[in-house]
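Reagents: none. Just compute today. N-acetyltransferase.
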Amino acid sequence: MTLRIKSYCGEEKMKIYHGMQAIVEEQFALDYNCQKNDFENKETLVTIAKKQLGQRRFEETENFFSILIYNGKLVITANEALESWCREILAKKMTAEWGFEAQTLIMINEKLREFGYQIDEAHVYFLPFALNAEKGRQVEIIPKEDIPSYANDKRIKEAFEYEACKDDEIGTVIRNESGEILAVAGASSNSDKMWEIGIDSFETGKGYASKVVSRLAFEVWKLGRVPYYGTALSHLASQNVALRSGFLPAFCELRTIKTNC
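Predicted 3D structure written out:
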């Protein structure tokens, strides 16, 4: 599906944003083994983790335990071995508003270690509210077939990850007059519905990062996928890039990984 995008008034922006939310909720229903209409209320939900076609793809292939906080709703999905603990203890102590407080994360991590797992990341994610084609300094589109040519640039760690579980689909880059990269962003296909954006910027305070991210979001949505941007809760510089690129905070997510020992 290819979409035509132009300049939007406020009403059109809201329509597009709500359309993205509907797609995201369909994705979450697959990822968290629930129904799309479960997101119509704010009641805490606990489900059994289950592999399903169309789920987002991650390096840790087994989803042993994950948490989603979206639109005031807390969703916990877990292996059957953790189900009773999630329902009887965690769901009663944890709230959507204060879910990622240190004490709660410590409690979760201690429980996970009993099963050979630990918290891998607890991130905040953004969805674009203002889509636009950046008209400042020239932003170059990087098609999928050209992405491997950036693999030798060891500075690029977030835009393109070259992981087996997902493809790097498209990128954007800004260069100076000498052809040196000032900022580069890339989108990877975690699923058929949602593509995640990563960014590497080598010049701070110039606005290059927000230019490549906003243009990339525009291009991803043109391709019929929802662009989303995630970063650590404490990475304020990265969060500011998202905000300056026309994104709004939309959900938080905690994922786990097997321990090394």
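The radius of gyration is 19 Å.
Action item: order primers for follow-up constructs.
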